[in-house]
Amino acid sequence: MKPLLALPLICLLLIAACTQPIHPGPDNDPYTPPQTETNKGTENTLAGPRLVTSQQELARLLAEAHTGYGNEYAQALRPTTMGVDAVMDGPVAGAGRAVAMEKAAAAEDYSTTNVQVQGVDEADFIKNDGNYIYLISEGNLVIVNAYPAEDADIISETTIEGYPRELFLLGERILIFTEVNEEAETISPYDFMPRKRWTQQTKALLYDVSDREDPELVNEYVITGTYQHARLLNGYAYFVVQEGAHYRPFPIDVPVLKEGTRIAAQPPIYYFDDPTQREAFSTVISIDMSTGDAEAQTYLTGYGTTLYMSQENLYLAYTSNNDWRYHEDFQKELFYDVIVPLLPGSVQEELEDAEDAPWRESASILQDHYEMLTEREIRELEDEIAEAVEAYEAEQEKLRTRTTVHRVAIQNGDLSYDATGAVPGYLLNQFSLDEHQDHLRIATTTGQVSRSGKDVSLNHIYILDDSMEITGSVEDLAKGERIYSARFMGDRAYIVTFKKVDPLFVIDLSDPRDPEVLGELKIPGYSDYLHPYDENHIIGIGKETVEAKEGDFAWYQGIKLSLFDVSDVTKPKEVAKTVIGDRGTESEALHDHRAFLFDKERELLVIPVSLHEIDRDRIDRNADNAYGTLNFIGAYVFRLNTEEGFVYEGRVEHDRPAEEGRGYYQRWGHEVRRSLYMDNVLYTVSSKEIIMSDLDEDLNRIGKILLPQPKDEPYPIRY
Question: pTM here?
Answer without folding.
Answer: 0.84
